[in-house]
């Protein structure tokens, strides 16, 4: 926290030196700035000025960096701005070529080792100054400017709106957490590429920086693996799908073959798209459980006898990968192809809900446990995870696993994703491991968010908007040193009962906006009543972006 404050102070002071401060308003006036500008997540500090700046065809972007080393932080803003105004803002690197030093978005990068996502955005009547810690900070400053301009609340104008008048303000900002994520399960129900891109667009708009893409499960394998074509031919499809609620007697099915998968070219396209929006995609390849679809394609990978079929219903299945050398060869070959597609340092390997009955009944597993000195099947799971982790660590990757991988002994370098409440995160942090918090009671957006009598069918639970907003990812049980291992949190969207992009949006929004503010905004700046005021304006923006959100 001290490094965050010092970095933010340096950027703030530098911005004041480069461009003198704007006029101050009275305390009663400044209290309304949050509601008037309606920025979400709420920035760390905001000071209002008096007057307005006009953005028109005279405006240019001037930077002190000729070639950004990672990505162009203006690209997304400028593409949107051109659709709304009919022209893009040119950007220059040579100030001497300018005849007029006004009407500039002047961008200065101050690279530092503290908070590369920090930025200062100062809107003056003569122009805009952005000082940032990296391209990421510039990108987030441009997203904030996009919100101030309310670009998304109006339709594409095809050039009819040539200028924009925006209020003066001075914002110094940086996120509270480094991990701000959303998850999407595309196994229970497949989501088209264009929707996945739209999902990423919304994450970027609300300054979320990780997209957890759940690509394999019992009900479908959704990623092309060229070495194993049956994963596309068999595992990507199921014979039919459950209708209604799981557990109904008798169960009902639709009788229609269902499935799909993303080609490697499609995945490369989505990864590039996300990179332009400062979003890192974390792929999840489930193991050793939740693998029934893979076993349907390659039954020899199981300890128990087949035949196996891609699951047509929900729940937890007893069939899991067998910890034989041939299984690890298969998984390593799969991961090798995954690594060529996803540059993320994190690879999610699942590890949840592993039914160990087949292991406990397997002579091979009994012999392996004796050979490795393992006392029980939980330790056998730890052996499985650690073997995969060693392979991925050698490739420069870090594994993330659901909190069950704590059982039987945590892999040496693993990051824990705590979903069964907060205890997994507490245990991980106390053991010196990083943790990402995603407890079901606060972060599962497949839960109901309103009256079950009027809401569409959901998996259960009750997680309304105000409960999400009230969440604090740092457990009170942790010391200050332990709390540093809490990287952030993530909203999860499991799709057993979400069969369309429209319903996925309905379940995710506006709850994802509340979570975004939890993860970005300083705790002492959060205020539910004030957030509710700003949210009303964001619903108009969601309308403009064509998002099918829940209206509460």
Automatic annotation (TrEMBL):
Which Gene3D superfamilies does the protein's record reference? Answer: Chitobiase/beta-hexosaminidase domain 2-like (3.30.379.10), Glycosidases (3.20.20.80)
Q: Which residues form the active site?
A: 353
Top enzyme class: hydrolase
Q: Name its GO BP terms in alphabetical order.
A: carbohydrate metabolic process; glycosaminoglycan metabolic process
Which residue ranges run through the membrane?
Answer: none
Q: Give the catalysed reaction(s), semicolon-separated.
A: Hydrolysis of terminal non-reducing N-acetyl-D-hexosamine residues in N-acetyl-beta-D-hexosaminides
Q: Which UniProt keywords apply?
A: Glycosidase, Hydrolase
| Gene Ontology cellular component terms for the protein in this record | membrane
Mind listing the GO molecular function terms for this protein? beta-N-acetylhexosaminidase activity
The family database entries (Pfam families) matched by this protein are listed as: Glyco_hydro_20, Glyco_hydro_20b
Instruction: Give the Enzyme Commission number.
Output: 3.2.1.52
- Domain named Beta-hexosaminidase bacterial type N-terminal is located at 38-174
The highest taxon in the source lineage is Bacteria
**Keyword tRNA processing assigned:** no
Domain Glycoside hydrolase family 20 catalytic, first and last residues per copy: 177-522
| InterPro entries cross-referenced by the UniProt entry | Beta_hexosaminidase_sua/sub, GH, Glyco_hydro_20_cat, Hex-like_dom2, HEX_bac_N
- Annotated family: Belongs to the glycosyl hydrolase 20 family.
What protein does this entry describe?
Answer: beta-N-acetylhexosaminidase
The scientific name of the source species is Candidatus Opimibacter skivensis
